[in-house]
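Minutes, structural biology subgroup

Action item carried over from last meeting: produce the C-alpha coordinate record for Cell division control protein 73 C-terminal domain-containing protein (Nannochloropsis salina CCMP1776). EB confirmed the sequence was re-checked against the source entry. Recorded below for completeness.
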Amino acid sequence: MGDPLSVLRGFVSSGRKWDVQGEEIVFGDVRFKKDEETAWKPIGRPGYYNLMELVIMIDHAHLPWNQYLKKIGGVLKQQTFVGRLDYNDLLKYLRGETATSKQIDQGRLISRAALVTPSVGTGGPLKRPAVGQRLASTFDGDDLHLREVSRSTGLDAQALGELRVLLETKRRRLEEGAREEELFKVDEEMHRILKADEQLLNDRNTALLTPTADYRVALNTVEATLKRAKDLSGKSGTSRVRSSVLENRAVGREEGPSSGGRSSSRGSRLHPPIIIVPSDPSALVNMTNVVDLLENAKFVGPQDRGKSKDGLKRVKELSITKVLDGGPRPVRFRVVDNPVWLQEQEWASVVAVFSNGKAWQFADWKHNTPVDLFHGCFGAVLIFDDEPVRGEVKGWNVKFYKINKNKRHMDGIAISSFWNQLTGWLKLNKPWVLEPPAVPGRKK
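Output recorded by EB:
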Protein backbone atom coordinates (compact mmCIF):
# COMPACT_ATOMS: atom_id res chain seq x y z
CA MET A 1 0.00 0.00 0.00
CA GLY A 2 1.36 3.42 -0.94
CA ASP A 3 1.70 6.42 1.32
CA PRO A 4 -1.66 8.18 1.93
CA LEU A 5 -0.01 11.62 1.70
CA SER A 6 1.21 10.95 -1.87
CA VAL A 7 -2.12 9.43 -2.91
CA LEU A 8 -4.09 12.38 -1.47
CA ARG A 9 -1.75 14.86 -3.19
CA GLY A 10 -2.29 13.12 -6.52
CA PHE A 11 -6.08 13.34 -6.17
CA VAL A 12 -6.10 16.98 -4.95
CA SER A 13 -3.70 18.26 -7.62
CA SER A 14 -5.60 16.48 -10.43
CA GLY A 15 -9.06 17.50 -9.17
CA ARG A 16 -10.29 13.92 -8.65
CA LYS A 17 -12.73 13.04 -5.87
CA TRP A 18 -12.47 10.46 -3.12
CA ASP A 19 -15.17 8.70 -1.12
CA VAL A 20 -15.57 8.29 2.65
CA GLN A 21 -17.08 4.88 3.46
CA GLY A 22 -17.50 4.18 7.17
CA GLU A 23 -14.06 4.16 8.76
CA GLU A 24 -12.25 4.14 5.42
CA ILE A 25 -11.44 6.67 2.74
CA VAL A 26 -11.45 5.27 -0.80
CA PHE A 27 -9.18 6.64 -3.52
CA GLY A 28 -10.17 4.75 -6.67
CA ASP A 29 -9.18 1.14 -5.95
CA VAL A 30 -7.05 2.05 -2.91
CA ARG A 31 -8.46 2.20 0.62
CA PHE A 32 -7.02 3.77 3.75
CA LYS A 33 -8.34 3.93 7.28
CA LYS A 34 -9.32 7.39 8.48
CA ASP A 35 -6.72 7.33 11.25
CA GLU A 36 -3.93 6.16 8.91
CA GLU A 37 -0.83 8.23 9.67
CA THR A 38 0.72 10.21 6.81
CA ALA A 39 4.37 11.29 6.41
CA TRP A 40 3.67 14.91 7.44
CA LYS A 41 5.07 15.91 10.86
CA PRO A 42 3.07 18.67 12.64
CA ILE A 43 4.82 21.73 14.10
CA GLY A 44 4.50 21.83 17.88
CA ARG A 45 2.97 18.37 18.22
CA PRO A 46 4.52 14.87 18.24
CA GLY A 47 3.72 12.17 15.72
CA TYR A 48 2.14 12.64 12.29
CA TYR A 49 -1.10 14.00 10.87
CA ASN A 50 -3.62 11.27 10.07
CA LEU A 51 -5.40 11.08 6.74
CA MET A 52 -8.78 12.29 8.03
CA GLU A 53 -7.26 15.53 9.36
CA LEU A 54 -5.88 16.33 5.91
CA VAL A 55 -9.13 15.41 4.15
CA ILE A 56 -11.14 17.70 6.46
CA MET A 57 -8.70 20.53 5.79
CA ILE A 58 -9.04 20.11 1.99
CA ASP A 59 -12.85 19.89 2.18
CA HIS A 60 -13.01 23.20 4.08
CA ALA A 61 -10.07 25.05 2.48
CA HIS A 62 -12.49 27.58 0.97
CA LEU A 63 -13.46 28.87 4.43
CA PRO A 64 -11.62 31.62 6.35
CA TRP A 65 -9.54 30.35 9.25
CA ASN A 66 -11.96 31.37 12.02
CA GLN A 67 -14.93 29.77 10.26
CA TYR A 68 -12.79 26.71 9.62
CA LEU A 69 -12.17 26.36 13.36
CA LYS A 70 -15.88 26.78 14.18
CA LYS A 71 -16.82 24.16 11.60
CA ILE A 72 -14.36 21.65 13.01
CA GLY A 73 -15.32 22.19 16.65
CA GLY A 74 -19.06 22.76 16.28
CA VAL A 75 -20.28 20.45 13.53
CA LEU A 76 -17.60 17.84 12.98
CA LYS A 77 -16.61 17.53 16.67
CA GLN A 78 -13.04 16.98 15.47
CA GLN A 79 -10.62 16.87 18.39
CA THR A 80 -7.42 17.22 16.35
CA PHE A 81 -6.93 19.20 13.17
CA VAL A 82 -4.25 20.82 10.99
CA GLY A 83 -2.67 23.66 12.96
CA ARG A 84 -2.20 27.24 11.84
CA LEU A 85 1.58 26.84 11.46
CA ASP A 86 1.18 23.93 9.02
CA TYR A 87 -1.98 25.05 7.21
CA ASN A 88 -0.60 27.15 4.33
CA ASP A 89 2.48 25.00 3.70
CA LEU A 90 0.46 21.76 3.71
CA LEU A 91 -2.26 23.21 1.46
CA LYS A 92 0.28 24.35 -1.14
CA TYR A 93 1.95 20.93 -1.14
CA LEU A 94 -1.30 19.00 -1.60
CA ARG A 95 -2.36 21.31 -4.44
CA GLY A 96 0.95 20.69 -6.21
CA GLU A 97 2.18 24.28 -5.80
CA THR A 98 5.33 23.13 -3.97
CA ALA A 99 7.40 20.02 -4.62
CA THR A 100 8.24 19.10 -1.03
CA SER A 101 8.46 20.41 2.54
CA LYS A 102 10.83 20.06 5.45
CA GLN A 103 7.91 18.70 7.52
CA ILE A 104 7.70 15.57 5.34
CA ASP A 105 9.43 12.47 6.72
CA GLN A 106 11.12 11.36 3.48
CA GLY A 107 12.22 8.01 4.91
CA ARG A 108 8.65 7.17 5.88
CA LEU A 109 7.37 8.37 2.49
CA ILE A 110 9.74 6.20 0.43
CA SER A 111 9.50 3.10 2.60
CA ARG A 112 5.70 3.10 2.48
CA ALA A 113 5.61 3.79 -1.25
CA ALA A 114 7.73 0.69 -1.88
CA LEU A 115 5.49 -1.71 0.08
CA VAL A 116 4.15 -4.67 -1.98
CA THR A 117 0.71 -6.05 -1.07
CA PRO A 118 -1.88 -8.09 -2.93
CA SER A 119 -4.00 -6.13 -5.38
CA VAL A 120 -7.71 -5.67 -4.67
CA GLY A 121 -9.78 -8.35 -6.39
CA THR A 122 -6.90 -10.79 -7.12
CA GLY A 123 -6.36 -14.20 -5.67
CA GLY A 124 -2.70 -13.73 -4.84
CA PRO A 125 0.28 -11.36 -5.00
CA LEU A 126 1.49 -10.14 -8.35
CA LYS A 127 5.16 -10.47 -9.22
CA ARG A 128 5.83 -6.75 -8.98
CA PRO A 129 9.66 -6.78 -9.16
CA ALA A 130 9.63 -8.60 -12.48
CA VAL A 131 7.03 -6.26 -13.97
CA GLY A 132 8.78 -3.20 -12.59
CA GLN A 133 12.19 -4.19 -13.98
CA ARG A 134 10.72 -4.85 -17.42
CA LEU A 135 8.96 -1.48 -17.49
CA ALA A 136 11.87 0.43 -15.93
CA SER A 137 13.97 -0.29 -19.01
CA THR A 138 11.31 1.30 -21.22
CA PHE A 139 9.94 4.34 -19.38
CA ASP A 140 11.77 7.25 -17.71
CA GLY A 141 9.57 7.33 -14.61
CA ASP A 142 7.68 10.61 -14.80
CA ASP A 143 4.08 10.67 -13.57
CA LEU A 144 2.56 10.92 -17.06
CA HIS A 145 4.27 7.77 -18.32
CA LEU A 146 3.44 5.93 -15.12
CA ARG A 147 -0.25 6.71 -15.52
CA GLU A 148 -0.12 5.45 -19.12
CA VAL A 149 1.61 2.27 -17.95
CA SER A 150 -1.05 1.83 -15.27
CA ARG A 151 -3.86 1.98 -17.82
CA SER A 152 -2.11 -0.39 -20.25
CA THR A 153 -0.98 -3.01 -17.74
CA GLY A 154 -3.65 -2.75 -15.03
CA LEU A 155 -1.19 -1.83 -12.28
CA ASP A 156 -2.73 -0.15 -9.25
CA ALA A 157 -1.26 2.66 -7.07
CA GLN A 158 0.74 0.15 -5.02
CA ALA A 159 2.58 -1.03 -8.09
CA LEU A 160 3.17 2.52 -9.25
CA GLY A 161 4.90 3.33 -5.96
CA GLU A 162 7.20 0.35 -6.36
CA LEU A 163 7.87 1.28 -9.97
CA ARG A 164 8.94 4.78 -8.99
CA VAL A 165 11.55 3.33 -6.63
CA LEU A 166 12.91 1.02 -9.33
CA LEU A 167 13.13 3.82 -11.89
CA GLU A 168 14.89 6.11 -9.44
CA THR A 169 17.40 3.33 -8.70
CA LYS A 170 18.09 2.88 -12.41
CA ARG A 171 18.54 6.62 -12.93
CA ARG A 172 20.99 6.79 -10.04
CA ARG A 173 23.04 3.91 -11.47
CA LEU A 174 23.18 5.61 -14.85
CA GLU A 175 24.44 8.82 -13.27
CA GLU A 176 27.11 6.96 -11.28
CA GLY A 177 28.30 5.17 -14.39
CA ALA A 178 28.51 8.26 -16.61
CA ARG A 179 31.81 8.73 -18.33
CA GLU A 180 34.22 11.27 -16.87
CA GLU A 181 34.64 13.16 -20.13
CA GLU A 182 30.89 13.73 -20.37
CA LEU A 183 30.81 15.11 -16.84
CA PHE A 184 33.77 17.31 -17.66
CA LYS A 185 31.96 18.72 -20.71
CA VAL A 186 28.95 19.56 -18.56
CA ASP A 187 31.16 21.30 -15.98
CA GLU A 188 33.04 23.14 -18.71
CA GLU A 189 29.82 24.44 -20.27
CA MET A 190 28.51 25.54 -16.88
CA HIS A 191 31.79 27.32 -16.16
CA ARG A 192 31.57 29.12 -19.51
CA ILE A 193 28.05 30.33 -18.75
CA LEU A 194 28.98 31.55 -15.28
CA LYS A 195 32.13 33.23 -16.57
CA ALA A 196 30.14 35.14 -19.20
CA ASP A 197 27.89 36.63 -16.50
CA GLU A 198 30.70 37.63 -14.13
CA GLN A 199 31.44 41.27 -13.38
CA LEU A 200 34.95 42.12 -12.18
CA LEU A 201 34.73 44.13 -8.96
CA ASN A 202 38.25 43.78 -7.57
CA ASP A 203 41.58 42.33 -8.57
CA ARG A 204 44.82 41.86 -6.65
CA ASN A 205 45.78 45.50 -7.26
CA THR A 206 42.49 47.31 -6.64
CA ALA A 207 41.88 45.27 -3.49
CA LEU A 208 44.84 47.07 -1.89
CA LEU A 209 43.30 50.50 -2.49
CA THR A 210 41.02 52.18 0.02
CA PRO A 211 39.41 55.62 -0.32
CA THR A 212 39.82 56.37 3.39
CA ALA A 213 43.61 56.13 3.50
CA ASP A 214 45.34 59.45 2.77
CA TYR A 215 49.10 59.74 3.19
CA ARG A 216 49.48 63.18 1.64
CA VAL A 217 50.38 64.75 4.98
CA ALA A 218 53.35 62.41 5.40
CA LEU A 219 54.42 62.87 1.78
CA ASN A 220 54.23 66.66 2.05
CA THR A 221 56.33 66.58 5.22
CA VAL A 222 59.01 64.45 3.57
CA GLU A 223 59.06 66.66 0.48
CA ALA A 224 59.38 69.82 2.58
CA THR A 225 62.26 68.29 4.57
CA LEU A 226 64.09 67.26 1.40
CA LYS A 227 63.60 70.73 -0.08
CA ARG A 228 65.05 72.41 3.02
CA ALA A 229 68.03 70.08 2.96
CA LYS A 230 68.61 70.83 -0.72
CA ASP A 231 68.43 74.60 -0.12
CA LEU A 232 70.88 74.37 2.76
CA SER A 233 73.33 72.28 0.78
CA GLY A 234 73.80 75.21 -1.64
CA LYS A 235 75.19 77.43 1.12
CA SER A 236 78.58 76.07 2.13
CA GLY A 237 79.03 78.16 5.26
CA THR A 238 75.53 77.47 6.47
CA SER A 239 75.89 73.80 5.65
CA ARG A 240 78.91 73.46 7.90
CA VAL A 241 77.13 75.18 10.76
CA ARG A 242 74.00 73.08 10.28
CA SER A 243 76.04 69.87 10.10
CA SER A 244 77.72 70.74 13.37
CA VAL A 245 74.37 71.53 14.99
CA LEU A 246 72.84 68.26 13.81
CA GLU A 247 75.80 66.31 15.18
CA ASN A 248 75.44 68.03 18.54
CA ARG A 249 71.70 67.27 18.62
CA ALA A 250 72.31 63.64 17.75
CA VAL A 251 74.72 63.34 20.66
CA GLY A 252 72.19 65.02 22.92
CA ARG A 253 69.48 62.54 21.93
CA GLU A 254 71.74 59.61 22.70
CA GLU A 255 72.24 60.96 26.20
CA GLY A 256 68.43 60.97 26.72
CA PRO A 257 65.78 63.65 27.24
CA SER A 258 66.82 64.35 30.83
CA SER A 259 70.58 64.41 30.28
CA GLY A 260 72.44 67.50 31.42
CA GLY A 261 75.45 66.84 29.20
CA ARG A 262 77.22 69.63 27.32
CA SER A 263 76.23 68.32 23.87
CA SER A 264 72.55 68.14 24.82
CA SER A 265 72.56 71.65 26.26
CA ARG A 266 74.22 73.11 23.16
CA GLY A 267 71.64 71.47 20.88
CA SER A 268 68.65 72.41 23.02
CA ARG A 269 69.81 76.00 23.45
CA LEU A 270 68.94 76.67 19.82
CA HIS A 271 65.23 76.27 20.71
CA PRO A 272 63.26 78.14 23.38
CA PRO A 273 62.11 75.98 26.30
CA ILE A 274 58.67 74.43 25.76
CA ILE A 275 55.71 74.02 28.13
CA ILE A 276 52.94 71.61 27.10
CA VAL A 277 49.36 72.06 28.33
CA PRO A 278 46.28 69.83 27.82
CA SER A 279 44.20 70.23 24.66
CA ASP A 280 41.05 69.31 26.60
CA PRO A 281 38.65 72.33 26.58
CA SER A 282 37.41 71.38 30.06
CA ALA A 283 40.90 71.20 31.61
CA LEU A 284 41.68 73.77 34.33
CA VAL A 285 44.63 75.00 32.28
CA ASN A 286 44.81 75.01 28.48
CA MET A 287 45.66 77.36 25.63
CA THR A 288 42.74 79.70 26.45
CA ASN A 289 43.93 80.70 29.94
CA VAL A 290 47.58 79.66 30.25
CA VAL A 291 48.96 83.19 29.59
CA ASP A 292 46.78 84.75 32.31
CA LEU A 293 47.72 81.93 34.67
CA LEU A 294 51.51 81.78 34.25
CA GLU A 295 52.31 85.43 33.38
CA ASN A 296 49.71 87.28 35.47
CA ALA A 297 49.07 84.66 38.20
CA LYS A 298 45.33 84.85 37.53
CA PHE A 299 43.13 81.79 37.01
CA VAL A 300 40.31 82.12 34.46
CA GLY A 301 37.69 79.40 34.83
CA PRO A 302 36.09 77.57 31.89
CA GLN A 303 32.87 79.58 32.25
CA ASP A 304 34.74 82.92 31.84
CA ARG A 305 37.19 82.04 29.06
CA GLY A 306 34.82 83.11 26.27
CA LYS A 307 34.68 86.63 27.76
CA SER A 308 38.36 87.37 27.14
CA LYS A 309 39.62 89.59 24.33
CA ASP A 310 40.42 86.67 22.03
CA GLY A 311 37.49 84.55 23.22
CA LEU A 312 37.94 80.84 22.57
CA LYS A 313 39.99 81.37 19.39
CA ARG A 314 42.02 78.27 18.60
CA VAL A 315 45.79 78.89 18.43
CA LYS A 316 48.56 76.46 17.68
CA GLU A 317 51.26 78.06 19.85
CA LEU A 318 51.64 80.82 22.46
CA SER A 319 54.61 82.61 24.01
CA ILE A 320 55.19 83.41 27.70
CA THR A 321 58.04 85.54 29.08
CA LYS A 322 59.15 85.09 32.69
CA VAL A 323 62.11 86.19 34.80
CA LEU A 324 63.14 83.14 36.76
CA ASP A 325 64.72 83.30 40.20
CA GLY A 326 68.49 83.30 39.80
CA GLY A 327 68.35 83.99 36.07
CA PRO A 328 70.11 86.97 34.48
CA ARG A 329 67.43 87.62 31.87
CA PRO A 330 63.75 87.05 31.02
CA VAL A 331 63.15 83.61 29.53
CA ARG A 332 60.71 83.15 26.65
CA PHE A 333 58.74 79.89 26.83
CA ARG A 334 56.84 78.34 23.95
CA VAL A 335 53.45 76.92 24.97
CA VAL A 336 51.79 74.19 22.85
CA ASP A 337 48.98 71.69 23.40
CA ASN A 338 49.70 69.27 20.54
CA PRO A 339 53.30 68.02 20.80
CA VAL A 340 52.73 65.47 18.04
CA TRP A 341 54.10 68.05 15.60
CA LEU A 342 57.30 68.65 17.57
CA GLN A 343 60.45 67.57 15.77
CA GLU A 344 62.96 65.20 17.32
CA GLN A 345 65.36 67.94 18.45
CA GLU A 346 62.50 70.05 19.89
CA TRP A 347 61.62 67.35 22.41
CA ALA A 348 64.93 68.07 24.18
CA SER A 349 63.59 71.59 24.84
CA VAL A 350 60.41 70.40 26.62
CA VAL A 351 60.82 71.51 30.24
CA ALA A 352 57.32 71.20 31.74
CA VAL A 353 54.05 69.39 31.08
CA PHE A 354 50.69 70.25 32.63
CA SER A 355 48.55 67.11 32.82
CA ASN A 356 44.79 66.70 33.16
CA GLY A 357 45.39 63.51 35.16
CA LYS A 358 44.47 61.12 32.33
CA ALA A 359 47.03 58.83 30.67
CA TRP A 360 45.30 59.08 27.29
CA GLN A 361 46.60 62.66 27.07
CA PHE A 362 49.99 61.21 26.06
CA ALA A 363 48.70 58.59 23.60
CA ASP A 364 50.42 59.83 20.40
CA TRP A 365 53.39 61.59 21.99
CA LYS A 366 57.01 60.58 21.58
CA HIS A 367 57.14 59.65 25.29
CA ASN A 368 53.65 58.17 25.61
CA THR A 369 53.74 56.87 29.19
CA PRO A 370 53.81 58.95 32.41
CA VAL A 371 56.98 57.14 33.55
CA ASP A 372 58.98 58.01 30.42
CA LEU A 373 57.53 61.51 30.04
CA PHE A 374 58.06 62.80 33.57
CA HIS A 375 61.54 61.29 33.75
CA GLY A 376 62.73 63.97 31.32
CA CYS A 377 60.53 66.97 32.16
CA PHE A 378 58.81 68.69 35.08
CA GLY A 379 55.25 67.45 35.69
CA ALA A 380 52.46 69.66 37.02
CA VAL A 381 48.76 69.10 37.77
CA LEU A 382 46.34 71.95 38.57
CA ILE A 383 43.38 71.03 40.83
CA PHE A 384 40.78 72.78 42.99
CA ASP A 385 41.63 72.86 46.70
CA ASP A 386 38.31 71.23 47.70
CA GLU A 387 38.74 68.20 45.45
CA PRO A 388 40.83 65.11 46.37
CA VAL A 389 43.44 63.61 44.07
CA ARG A 390 41.94 60.54 42.41
CA GLY A 391 43.04 57.79 40.07
CA GLU A 392 46.37 56.81 38.62
CA VAL A 393 47.79 60.35 38.69
CA LYS A 394 48.61 59.85 42.39
CA GLY A 395 51.47 57.55 41.39
CA TRP A 396 53.02 59.85 38.78
CA ASN A 397 56.15 61.97 39.21
CA VAL A 398 54.22 65.27 39.23
CA LYS A 399 53.56 68.22 41.55
CA PHE A 400 50.02 69.24 42.50
CA TYR A 401 49.04 72.94 42.63
CA LYS A 402 45.76 73.77 44.34
CA ILE A 403 43.67 76.86 43.60
CA ASN A 404 40.42 78.11 45.10
CA LYS A 405 37.29 78.25 42.95
CA ASN A 406 36.41 81.79 44.07
CA LYS A 407 39.38 83.47 45.82
CA ARG A 408 41.42 84.87 42.90
CA HIS A 409 43.80 86.77 45.18
CA MET A 410 45.22 83.39 46.27
CA ASP A 411 46.12 82.27 42.74
CA GLY A 412 49.56 83.87 43.06
CA ILE A 413 50.56 81.43 45.82
CA ALA A 414 50.09 78.36 43.63
CA ILE A 415 51.66 79.94 40.52
CA SER A 416 54.66 81.29 42.46
CA SER A 417 55.20 77.79 43.88
CA PHE A 418 55.11 76.37 40.34
CA TRP A 419 57.78 78.77 39.01
CA ASN A 420 60.05 78.25 42.06
CA GLN A 421 59.91 74.46 41.80
CA LEU A 422 60.36 74.56 38.01
CA THR A 423 63.43 76.80 38.44
CA GLY A 424 64.95 74.36 40.92
CA TRP A 425 64.31 71.48 38.53
CA LEU A 426 65.90 73.41 35.62
CA LYS A 427 69.08 74.12 37.62
CA LEU A 428 69.57 70.38 38.12
CA ASN A 429 68.38 69.00 34.80
CA LYS A 430 68.46 71.70 32.08
CA PRO A 431 70.64 74.59 33.30
CA TRP A 432 71.03 75.96 29.76
CA VAL A 433 67.58 77.56 30.14
CA LEU A 434 68.94 79.84 32.90
CA GLU A 435 72.27 80.67 31.22
CA PRO A 436 72.70 84.08 29.52
CA PRO A 437 72.75 84.11 25.71
CA ALA A 438 76.16 83.59 24.16
CA VAL A 439 77.83 86.74 22.74
CA PRO A 440 79.51 86.16 19.35
CA GLY A 441 83.30 86.19 19.59
CA ARG A 442 83.39 85.84 23.39
CA LYS A 443 84.61 82.63 25.02
CA LYS A 444 82.98 81.41 28.17
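Discussion: The beta strands are 19-21, 24-27, 30-33, 274-276, 317-323, 330-336, 350-355, 378-384, 399-403.
Next step: EB to file the record with the rest of the batch.
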